[in-house]
Every structure is written in structure tokens, then in C-alpha cells.
Amino acid sequence: MDAEVRRLWQPRVRRRAEQRAAAAGAVIVETRARFGFSSAAGSTDDPDMRRITQPLPPDRARELFEAHHAGTSERDLERIVAAGPHQAYFQESGTRAEDLDVVELTDVDYIDFDIQG
Prior knowledge:
Layout: H1 2-24, E1 27-39, E2 42-45, E3 50-55, H2 58-69, H3 74-90, E4 100-115
Antiparallel strand pairs: 1-2, 1-3, 1-4
Helix pairs in contact: 1-2, 2-3
């Protein structure tokens, strides 16, 4: 009975914690990767490895959790993760690089997630 309670209860607790973390902007992504960029001027792959530690915007965190639970491919999860630094890091929340259309992780050395709070 104990195993059955955990099987049913833990996923609900985990989902609520994920929802609270996503809403609060408390999902932190740390990655070391190369990034590819696309804009109206064309596209490029940045040859440098960048280490970025950045909270995911709440909409991206929710999208990431939903995609993960739906069994989305690793490549598609990487696209969702790359959209967070796209908005927050590369565009500085809309204050620069306005014509930057897409940011992709092109060579992931590592990626780590943390939930703050």
C-alpha cells in the first residue's frame, strides 16, 4: 500500500512544485554550449562555448515541464531551453538584438536545472 500511495501522490506533488516554480520564474538553467543564431541578416554558429546561468521565463519553464511530461524529444527540449536565454540573455528582455529570430543550442557540453525557493 505504501508503494501505491507514493506512486499516486508523488507525481501530483512534483507537478504542483513545478507549476509554482515556473510561475515564480524560479527554474534556473545553467549550460555550457555553443549557440547558433538566426536573424533577418542571416544565420551563424558562434564558435565559442558560452557558459550561461539564467532563469527561464515563466512561459518557457511551463512549456519545458509540459513537453518533458509529454515525452518530447531531447532536441525539442533543447529548443525550448534555448528560447529562455534568447529572450533574457541575448535580447536582454527586449532591450537589444531585436532582429534576433532564433537561438539554438548547437553543441551542448552540459546542461543543469535547478529550482530556487
